[in-house]
């Protein structure tokens, strides 16, 4: 009978607050881990939950560290105050990358920004005869369109050079100096291929052309010049 009286459930009353500000915590979950009973705090942080001496009660509130307290004897009817501290926020891992991976990308963006207005200028449509004729006759307008054409052509060349570089070619072929320059001049990479090829395809292209280069070089060495008749 004594054991039964000790184990008799009682109503445990309390108030849950922020440990720093003392503000009441609304909507926190209070759980008796033995009975699995759960209640939530009201707008003033108050709660009431049944329990017996020795029961463990957990306090869970979003943004706060979870705490566990044990119901002690002699606290029936006493409203206790509990305080939770905010938990440290664990951020997801973020990899910071450079805006531009290559020098070409950075310089190309700078050039595009510098000549934005000039490159945005468009030729007049033939549907507007006056403007169309003005474009054809104006020396300044012709110079603008010539600059646009040359600018796009140079950008294509710079892009190819950024992928088909002497450093990469040297690392794959071992060529250097004039021989390297001659090889890259002889085997020029098309712009469309440089734009669409993966890094693996790019390397394969250089190696394939290098094998062809070696074969042709050996063939030239084996050519016997005719003897001098004099």
From TrEMBL:
It comes from Rurimicrobium arvi. It holds the Pfam family CarboxypepD_reg. This is Carboxypeptidase-like regulatory domain-containing protein. InterPro entries: CarboxyPept-like_regulatory. The lineage of its organism: Bacteria, Pseudomonadati, Bacteroidota, Chitinophagia, Chitinophagales.
């Amino acid at each position: 009978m004594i054991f039964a009286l000790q184990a008799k459930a009682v109503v445990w009353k309390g108030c849950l607050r922020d440990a720093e500000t003392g503000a009441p915590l609304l909507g926190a979950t209070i759980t008796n881990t033995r009975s699995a009973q759960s209640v939530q705090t009201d707008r003033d942080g108050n709660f009431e939950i049944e329990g017996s001496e020795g029961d463990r009660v957990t306090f869970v509130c979003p943004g706060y560290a979870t705490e566990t307290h044990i119901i002690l004897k002699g606290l029936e009817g006493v409203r206790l105050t509990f305080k939770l501290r905010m938990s440290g926020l664990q951020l997801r891992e973020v990899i910071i990358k450079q805006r531009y991976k290559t020098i070409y990308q950075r310089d190309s963006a700078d050039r595009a920004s510098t000549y934005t207005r000039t490159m945005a200028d468009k030729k007049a449509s033939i549907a507007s005869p006056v403007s169309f004729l003005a474009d054809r006759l104006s020396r300044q307008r012709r110079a603008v369109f010539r600059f646009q054409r040359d600018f796009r052509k140079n950008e294509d060349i710079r892009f190819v050079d950024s992928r088909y570089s002497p450093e990469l070619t040297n690392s794959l072929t071992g060529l250097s100096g004039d021989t390297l320059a001659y090889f890259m001049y002889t085997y020029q990479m098309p712009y469309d291929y440089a734009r669409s090829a993966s890094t693996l395809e790019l390397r394969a292209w250089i190696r394939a052309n290098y094998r062809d280069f070696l074969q042709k070089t050996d063939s030239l060495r084996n050519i016997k010049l005719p003897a001098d008749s004099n």
